[in-house]
Amino acid sequence: MTPDNRPVPTVGGVAADEWLARSVPALVPGVVAALVDHLPVYASLPPEELRRDITGVVRQSLRGFARYLREGVLPEGDDLLALRESATRRAEEGLPLGTVVDAYFFGAQHVLDEVARRAGPHEAAGLPGLCGAAFAYLRPVVGAVLTGYLHHANASGNTDRDARQALLAALLDGRPPADHTAISRPAGYLVLSIGIAPHPDETVSGVDPAVAASRKLRRLRTELHHLTRGRALTRLSSTGGLVLVPIATAPGGLTDDDWQHLRSDVDRLRRHCAAELTVGAVAADPPGVAAAARLAAEVREVATAAGRGPGVHRLPDVLLEYQLSRPGPARDQLASLLDPLAGRPELLDTLRTFFECALDRRRTGAALCVHPNTVDYRLRKITALTGLDTVPGPGTAMLHAALTARAHG
Fold first, then answer.
1. This protein's superkingdom (predicted)?
2. Which residues, at least 6 apart from 318, have a Cβ–Cβ distance to it below 8 Å?
């Protein structure tokens, strides 16, 4: 029986709780994709956040719902605490409360749609009971979300901050900002997708990594406020996020000096927070911010996959790698060139490091903590298995393209 004493529905001949528990790994990516598709603000979140925090919350919620169907036990204690903490992080990042709550209902709708799609004709009678159970489960879940979000809002309520977050949300949604927003409207923005590496203290034994990460983020925020005179719009967590820096010049009017100034500012931020920063940067006018945020995140991911390292990366810096990362038969065939190395992770790691070290075998050996002769042996093995030469030339260009394609396959 369901918690409201209705017969336990089945899905494809399997009890709904059992089917749901088994299907969690398959359902989670679909739920996250639904959030990105239906909620534009979620589409602007850092990819790492979607893969880690958001995916983790979805997984926990699905498992909790399966347990509720099986045992009639609503989430409590640590389960609700985790949801409150997640909602607090969303509040810190500036996501609108309505969007955060909507995410849970969109997720539930996606799961129920999947159940309805798989249920046979004789199982349809059990679907209303499953929907009723979903609403019963969501009541304490949404209560925890509201508690976590509003606790942060009450603790840090600030009219100016709220106005900035409202402006940021409008820009990312592609909506005209509210007329009453008292923040000046610039000609454009530098749209920065920022990846923040761990601070050394985050990996020290005996140190609370959450505290170290919080301090790192606070130092970065403080210096960013100083550099932009408090005008930047931000949505940041300890692993990265989005920053919009107002500019007085139209995006097309930026010069090389302007981009060099940005690089200097990012280096200054790096020194103050004592963590490496990898930045995808795009200039956009206000109506183009939403698209620019997506592009900046893609540029950063491509630069990281290509081994470009920390610093500021623009689309012109990674044009080839960006194009190679786009889906299509050419990308798939390029990636397949490295299939002979699939069972030899040390060869793939050596090849990746070889390119990161500008084809310098000694630097590669030092980076891998192996002798240069070992690097030579592995490079010869790569050539033997792939048929592509690792001596600078057409073969290395093809290998680098294959690595890039494989990273995004």
1. Bacteria
2. 299, 302, 303, 306, 308
Contacts of 19 (CB under 8 A, 6+ apart): 10, 11, 12, 115, 118
Ranking 156-170, 254-268, 300-314, 315-329 by mean pLDDT, the lowest is: 156-170
Q: What is the pLDDT of residue 208?
A: 75
For the residues 270-276, what does the mean pLDDT come to?
A: 93
Determine the residue type at 232: A
Q: Assign residue 72 a region: left if phi > 0, alpha if psi is -120 to 50, beta otherwise?
A: left
CATH label, 191-323, candidates 3.30.70, 1.10.530, 2.170.130, 3.40.50: 3.30.70
Sketch the domain layout of the chain as residue ranges: 10-155, 191-323, 326-407
Q: Average pLDDT for residues 59-72, to the nearest whole number? A: 91
> How many Å apart are CA 139 and CA 64, to the nearest integer?
13
Structural tokens at position 142: 């949404």
Residue 183's pLDDT is 63
Residue 294: the pLDDT is 92
Q: Give me the helix-helix angle, 361-368 and 372-386, nearest 10°.
A: 100
Distance (Å, whole) CA 249 – CA 257: 13
d(CA 192, CA 44): 11
Per-residue b/e over 130-161, b at no fewer than 16 CB within 10 Å? bbebbebbbebbbebbeebbeebeeeeeeeee
**In angstroms, rounded to a whole number, what is the distance separating the alpha carbons of residues 246 and 86?**
29
Q: 138-197: per-residue pLDDT in tens?
A: 999 999 999 998 887 666 555 667 778 888 888 998 877 765 455 667 889 999 999 999
- Yes or no: say if 42 and 50 are a contact pair by the CB < 8 Å rule: yes
Instruction: Identify the sign of the CA torsion 151, 157, 161, 163.
Output: positive
**Nearest 10 degrees: CA dihedral of 350, 355, 359, 364?**
-40
Tell me what the pLDDT averaged over the chain comes to: 86
* pTM to 2 decimal places: 0.57
CATH of segment(s) 326-407: 1.10.10.2840
